[in-house]
Amino acid sequence: MIILKTKAAGVQAKAASKTTNYSNNSKPFNTKAQRNVPRECLPSPFLYYKKIFPNIILGSEWVSVRCVFHNDSNPSLSINLKNGGFNCFSCGAKGGDLIAFHQKHFNLGFHQSLLQLKSIKKRETK
For residue range 14-50, what is the model confidence (pLDDT) as tens digits? Predict the structure, then answer.
């Protein structure tokens, strides 16, 4: 009888460890759908960031600009002009690609951001 109770408690603990409680019922950012987005359907990171930060110059892979996520007086946001990643050393905003930047900058969901970026890509190729 004691063995059964111990075994049942172990099964309950294992099941509890598999459940994840996300705040505000949000899903983790790195879902399978987000990892499988073909990058050729996205605009060029340099041209995308050039529209938001007109003064950037293609000189290196990483460029520092004033952060759009907080009131920034000194350039503290580093953006990657090759893959679209970004990191603010002041406010902590960061992401790995243009989709993450577009989501955060315009406060959109993943799907809506992807549709807008695809639209930008279509205009870019015309």
Answer: 444 444 333 333 344 455 555 667 777 889 999 999 9
How long is the chain?
Answer: 126
CA pair distance 105, 70, nearest whole angstrom: 11
Give Cα 76 to chain centroid, integer Å: 18
Residues 110, 43: Cα–Cα separation, whole Å = 16
Identity of residue 28 = P
Question: What 3-state class would DSSP assign to 82?
Answer: coil
d(CA 110, CA 116): 10
What pTM was estimated for this model as a whole?
A: 0.70
pLDDT in tens, 64-107: 999 999 999 999 999 999 999 999 999 999 999 999 999 999 99
- On whether the CB atoms of residues 94 and 87 are closer than 8 A, the answer is yes
Helix H or strand E segment including 26: none
What's the burial of 75, exposed, middle or buried (CB within 10 Å: 0-12/13-18/19+)?
middle
CA 98 to chain centre: 7
